[in-house]
């Protein structure tokens, strides 16, 4: 074969390969879900429950990849810049809506196409079981008498739980020392070790330690008491007007084809509705909240506006 024919043959082979790839049904290979937070936290837990059931629904393996750092910026940025083919998705969180307002990164909801929202959880203030504070007011009174003495851990500077603690601080008229961590799970570890006095994270992220008597929740930042923690009063009940929480949902890079997003949305709705996923979330005390792709995309826009106002109001 002469050189001209060889070049033609290679080009034709590549053309055929491209046609085959284009005609391959989606999905036809494993899907990776990027989690921007550390293993062991609520985001990681809901992601793994989703991936387990999605592997059965979609007929391909779903895996979770924790990419931590920069208050979730590293993972969110990696997910936004991934190839827009539907095989690298991100479990986005509230913090995505705060990055621009905080000047942390030029990154936001517009860098993704929403697929589904699957979760929503309130914040909670938790201390060690042997803490002298048995109510939120006990802690607030101590903070008033000892400005900045109470060390409150959170999931990162400017994170959803940092903002929640700042809102509590502002409404109660006290000053905390905020101690950032790279996710909720590391903050809880520091509380267990006695290195900080309290954490502002979700009830789900402390529940296993509460159940065995190592930690206790002083107040939950929900409108009404949670069924799973019915004995714990809300923050509002205790005289501090703070209702605040987080959410998690699946998203793809913004240039992902609409037909792929539609396939993912349809399958993920089946995952969300499956008894196994519902039970996994219940066992982990993770709140369930569903929004389809269109509703979730609009929700993200509104959340970015609200988060920008909240960051501004709380300095």
Task: Record the SSE blueprint.
Elements: H1 3-22, E1 31-35, H2 42-58, E2 62-66, H3 73-80, E3 88-93, H4 99-102, E4 112-122, E5 124-128, H5 136-145, E6 151-154, H6 160-172, E7 177-180, H7 184-192, E8 198-201, H8 207-211, E9 215-220, E10 245-253, H9 258-273, H10 275-283, E11 288-291, H11 293-313
Parallel strand pairs: 1-2, 1-3, 6-7, 6-8
Antiparallel strand pairs: 3-10, 4-10, 4-11, 5-8, 5-9
Helix pairs in contact: 2-9, 2-10
How far the N terminus sits from the C terminus, by CA atoms, comes to: 72 Å
Kindly report the name of the CATH homologous superfamily of the largest domain: Bordetella uptake gene, domain 1
- CATH architecture level-2 label of the largest domain: 3-Layer(aba) Sandwich
**H-E string:** HEHEHEHEEHEHEHEHEEHHEH
How many beta-strand segments?
A: 11
If you compute it from the alpha carbons, what radius of gyration comes out, rounded to the nearest whole angstrom?
Answer: 22 Å
Strand content: 15-25%
Number of domains: 2
Give the CATH level 1 class of the largest domain. Answer: Alpha Beta
Q: Which whole number gives the mean pLDDT? A: 90
| Helix run count | 11
How many strands, which pairing sense, and closed or not: the largest β-sheet?
6 strands, mixed
Low-confidence stretches: 6-21
Shape: globular
How is the largest sheet built, in terms of strand order? Answer: 2-1-3-10-4-11
């Amino acid at each position: 074969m002469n050189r001209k024919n060889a070049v033609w043959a290679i080009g034709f082979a590549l053309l055929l390969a491209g046609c085959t790839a284009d005609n391959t049904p989606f999905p036809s290979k494993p899907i990776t879900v990027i989690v921007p937070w550390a293993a062991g936290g609520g985001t990681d837990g809901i992601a793994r429950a989703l991936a387990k059931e999605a592997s059965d629904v979609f007929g391909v393996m779903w895996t979770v990849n924790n990419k931590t750092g920069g208050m979730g910026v590293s993972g969110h940025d990696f997910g936004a810049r991934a190839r827009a083919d539907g095989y690298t998705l991100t479990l986005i969180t509230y913090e995505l809506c705060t990055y621009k307002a905080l000047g942390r990164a030029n990154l936001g909801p517009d860098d993704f196409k929403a697929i589904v929202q699957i979760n929503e959880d309130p914040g909670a203030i938790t201390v060690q079981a042997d803490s002298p504070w048995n109510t939120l007011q006990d802690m607030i009174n101590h903070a008033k008498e000892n400005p900045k003495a109470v060390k409150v851990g959170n999931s990162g500077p400017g994170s959803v739980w940092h903002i929640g603690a700042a809102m509590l601080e502002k409404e109660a008229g006290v000053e905390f020392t905020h101690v950032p961590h790279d996710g909720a799970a590391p903050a809880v570890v520091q509380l267990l070790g006695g290195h900080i006095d309290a954490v502002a994270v979700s009830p789900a992220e402390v529940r296993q330690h509460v159940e065995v008597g190592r930690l206790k929740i002083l107040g939950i930042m929900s409108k009404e008491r949670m069924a799973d923690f019915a004995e714990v009063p809300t923050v509002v009940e205790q005289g501090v007007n703070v209702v605040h929480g987080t959410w998690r949902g699946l998203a793809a890079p913004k240039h992902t084809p609409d037909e792929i997003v539609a396939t993912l949305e349809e399958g993920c709705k089946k995952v969300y509705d499956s008894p196994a996923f519902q039970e996994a979330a219940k066992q982990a005390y993770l709140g369930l909240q569903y929004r389809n792709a269109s509703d979730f995309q609009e929700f993200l826009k509104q959340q970015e506006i609200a988060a920008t106002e909240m960051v501004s109001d709380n300095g």
